[in-house]
Design goal:
By secondary structure, this protein is of the alpha/beta class. The chain has helices at 9-22, 44-50, 63-73, 89-92, 115-121, 157-180, 213-223, and strands at 2-7, 24-30, 55-56, 77-81, 99-103, 111-112, 126-133, 143-150, 196-197, 230-234, 237-246, 262-266, 269-273, 278-286.
Length: 313
């Protein structure tokens, strides 16, 4: 079976590796070069080069060129994993067996971009991976396989990625098993239950301290490493909050505080007032500093306040 692979990052490499073992991968289409590629994530580009597979990096605005190349290759199947560009229907229709995508959510829930981040932000207890046929919509095609992954209360985005990496490999193998025995089954999505979410940008990590403690906690763990991080400002300086948790200790008697105000400190971290409680922060880093804050020196004072912009208006 001649295949073409389109993908990116570690999950792309995982799926590509499985298809290289059991299909003839005739070409790889990767994203344009990214500074994080091969550093924070495994590189699809380098995997293709290492295995002497023809590599193309057209990007999203050169769909006509991509279409011409796919027609030239004439694959039986297109495999997609973390490829950010939607394909034209003309491209989807070229392979005789269509195109399949690995999408990290339990479709029809969380169609669109950054589904795992959004699931954690929204306090979901589970996410997952869906293998589905590609059609003209965004993550709307019929489902082939689906597997759930539990989101524990203490899980960060990295923890969920680590769990999902194993599922990507497993579902890739199972998908190939099905393909080798004919056309895989297809189950129509219940579109009435669909939810859709947009891409996230670094600036979306801004913490709104008037929010509920759990909402702040979920945001922080959803965008911590390897993502850009949640952040706030204090006295003109930007601080990334890499870790936090709902405060469970006893607060000493103190004047009434407002959201964003530091109301507790010890040698392990600080407590910041939220909309309905206190967020304890044991790991934060000032922008431009190579190291996280050492709280043993008690660098913050009770009454200092985090705000949503670099300078108060």
């Amino acid at each position: 079976m001649k295949t073409v692979f389109m993908g990116n990052h570690t999950v792309g490499v995982i799926v590509l590796n499985e298809f290289m073992k059991r299909t003839d991968v005739a070409a790889v289409f990767a994203h344009p070069d990214d500074a994080d590629d091969g550093v924070l994530y495994l590189s699809v580009k380098e995997t293709a080069k290492k295995n002497n597979i023809p590599l193309f990096q057209f990007g999203g605005k050169r769909n006509d060129e991509l279409e011409r190349k796919i027609r030239e290759i004439s694959p039986d199947l297109i495999i997609i994993a973390d490829y950010r560009y939607l394909l034209k229907s003309e491209v989807i229709g070229i392979p005789g067996r269509g195109a399949i995508n690995f999408h990290p959510s339990l479709l029809p829930k969380y169609r669109g971009r950054a589904p795992v981040n959004w699931a954690i932000i929204n306090g979901e207890k589970k996410c997952g991976l869906t293998v589905h046929y590609v059609d003209d919509g965004m993550d709307t095609g019929d489902i082939i396989l689906q597997e759930e992954v539990e989101i524990l209360f203490e899980d960060t985005i990295k923890d969920i990625h680590d769990k999902l990496f194993l599922v990507y490999a497993d579902l890739a193998k199972r998908t190939i098993d099905l393909l080798e025995h004919g056309d895989p089954p297809r189950y129509r999505q219940n579109h009435s239950e669909a939810t859709e979410f947009p891409r996230r940008r670094p600036e979306d990590g801004l913490i709104h301290w008037e929010s509920a403690t759990l909402d702040i906690y979920n945001l922080v763990r959803a965008v911590t490493h390897p993502y850009p991080g949640a952040f706030s400002f204090i006295e003109g300086e930007k601080y990334f909050i890499w870790q936090c948790k709902p405060f469970g200790g006893h607060l000493p008697a103190a004047p009434e505080t407002v959201p964003g105000e530091i109301c507790y400190r010890d040698k392990g971290g600080i407590g910041v007032r939220s909309g309905d409680g206190v967020v304890y922060i044991p790991k934060t880093q000032r922008e431009g500093s190579p190291a996280v804050i050492d709280f043993a020196s008690l660098p913050f004072s009770i009454g200092q306040k985090f705000i949503s912009c670099r300078h108060a208006s």
